[in-house]
Amino acid sequence: MNIKRTILVTAHTGREAAVLSARLVMNRLIDAGLNVRVLDDEAEEIGCAGADVVPDHASALDDAELIIVLGGDGTLLRAAELARPARVPLLGVNLGHVGFLAEAEVEDLNVAVDRVVEGRYEVEERMTIEVLVRLNGSVVAQTWALNEASVEKVDRMLEVVAEIDGRPLSRWGCDGVICATPTGSTAYAFSAGGPVVWPEVEALLLVPNSAHALFARPMVVSPRSTLAVEIIPETSPAVLWCDGRRRFDIPPGSRLEVRRGTVPVRLARLLGAESTGAPFTDRLVAKFGLPVEGWRGRVRTGSAPGELSG
Q1: Is the confidence at residue 230, as pLDDT, over 90?
Q2: DSSP labels, the chain
Q3: Looking at the DSSP assignment, which residues form a beta bridge with residue 163?
Q4: Average of pLDDT values for 40-56?
Q5: pLDDT surpasses 60 at 242
Q6: pLDDT value at position 135?
Q7: Neighbour-count burial of 14, counting CB atoms closer than 10 A to its CB (0-12 exposed, 13-18 middle, 19+ buried)
Q8: In whole angstroms, what is the distance from residue 45 CA to residue 18 CA?
Q9: pTM to 2 decimals?
Q10: Catalytic residue (choose from 62, 73, 114, 165)
Q11: Of 142, 129, 149, whose CA–CA distance to 203 is shortest?
Q12: Which whole number is the average pLDDT over 288-295?
């Protein structure tokens, strides 16, 4: 007995282009014989006949193969909250600005849908972080992030002590501290001066934000490490943001602990010579408009594999 393939389509309904693209995707999937679902809080705006309307709940992904997300990185991060527990992969179509998490651009939408229909995609896992906030030894907040956990000042400068693997590293007066994954290295951590880390590298990033200190460099540590940021009791209150979506008030004297998450987020990557998928280096060049004029690459004159010839 053949089980009908099921795809959930979600979109940034505040953008007309995303709504129109979602309708196009859903109609093409339905015409190809796939079962399509849409979330109940998006169904009215998208309005695609033939799709199953499901609650914005874990049950929306029962037996689902994939989530297609139309919007920017923020839309994909919202969808990741639904997809991560169910371990269902996400395929992002970028209708935002930079869109590092997206696999395809809107102009490549038809190619992306064809690849999904043909099953021509692979799935990669992106590491996440688990986040704990303790106050006087008790856990007062617990969450996770795909990109970063950022502790930030509310008004006045924060005074914090950073810790790695149970040992104090440095004390900073700062606007905040960002604990990020490689996926998040091109998000908030990048804006704060952190390094770009290729997604397949397993590591954790600790990035001080506008720190008033001689030693306040971004650091890349082992994925097995535990990062901690202690807020000095005499300083001002802080706020914790995870992926720019989940907010927690952090009183002075609190301690933020970050370690590698046990549940990754799964992203779909398209396959095929005509696919829109690209190496991460090419994504960097395209997203930031980096100048590469004059690059010659490897001159192929019969060199042995791995050898360069001029």
Answers
A1: yes
A2: -PPPPEEEEEE-TTSHHHHHHHHHHHHHHHHTT-EEEEEHHHHHHH--TTPEEE-SSGGGGTT--EEEEEE-HHHHHHHHHHHHHHT--EEEEE-SSS-TT-SEEGGGHHHHHHHHHHT-EEEEEE--EEEEEEETTEEEEEEEESSEEEEEESSSPEEEEEEETTEEEEEEEESEEEEE-SGGGGTHHHHTTPPP--TTS--EEEEEES--SS----EEE-TT--EEEEEPTTS--EEEEETTTEEEEE-TT-EEEEEE-SSPEEEEEE-STT-S---HHHHHHHHHT---TT------SSPPTT----
A3: 168, 228
A4: 92
A5: yes
A6: 96
A7: exposed
A8: 10
A9: 0.91
A10: 73
A11: 129
A12: 93
Gap between the Cα atoms of 176 and 170, Å rounded: 14
Longest dimension (CA), the chain: 68
The token pair at 62 is 């029962």
**Checking DSSP bridges between strand 90-94 and strand 66-71, what pairing results, if any?**
parallel
**List of residues 6+ apart from 230 with CB closer than 8 A:** 160, 161, 163, 254, 255, 256
Q: If we measure between CA atoms, which residue out of 106, 207, 96 comes closest to residue 147? A: 207
Place of tokens 């609650």: 55
pLDDT at 96: 74
> Letter for the amino acid at 114?
D
Long-range Cβ pairs for the range 134-137 (8 Å, 24+):
134/254, 134/255, 134/257, 135/251, 135/253, 135/254, 135/255, 136/253
- Catalytic-residue membership of 73: yes
> CA-to-CA distance for 41 and 205, rounded, in angstroms?
36
